[in-house]
Amino acid sequence: MSENPEARDAAAVPRQPGAVPAGREAAQPAGTADPIRVLIVDDHALFRRGLEMVLQGEDDIEVIGEGGDGHEAVEMAGDLLPDVVLMDIRMPRRSGIEACTAIKDAAPSAKIVMLTISDEEEDLFEAIKAGASGYLLKEISIDEVPQAVRAVHGGQSLISPSMASKLITEFAALAKRSEERTQQVPAPRLTDREMEVLRLVARGLGNREIARELFISENTVKNHVRNILEKLQLHSRMEAVVYAVREKLLEIT
Question: Do 122 and 241 have their domain in common?
Fold first, then answer.
């Protein structure tokens, strides 16, 4: 029987420690890769516990902490440096959207997924601006959450289908209004205070945080935002930021 040339060549080359044989994928054996470290933040303890039970059943995922509001989320993210944060929006003390911006500062590599019942377009837009990598409604099957964690950790962006359609519709409307404005007069002048508010809106801050930043009441912030939208003839905070950047009223760095 003639000698197999491939077998001869393989035998002639000594294998280095840890080297992968030719023709095989360079995948780590099951159980040796570092697990995806997940932080769960939701003001409903029962929901947190349900997520934890599902995720802890996965070999490649580890729940490293739980929090009940946005304030705890920021502190824990800075201490634990999670790979993925699953976080609600409507929470006491500090909303998930407000916390999202701070978490990206405290743990820049963390991927944040908003897991919420809110199907409001405004929440979706604000979450994306704040740095969220995903926006999923709690109507999804809890068994789908582990795969969502893996997908976001792997660099994908996830948006629930019903919310994605709203996003497309909003951007289409924004593009149309932008085109209609090209023949209109230059942008109206905003007051210094309105520009301050607009800059903070562009940073992803909510009304409460803007009020704290500027030492004014939350109602005053709402009035400023309403005046900005009226002057610019727009319908949402996101539109105002996009319009202001395009018209060079402000720069986002």
Answer: no
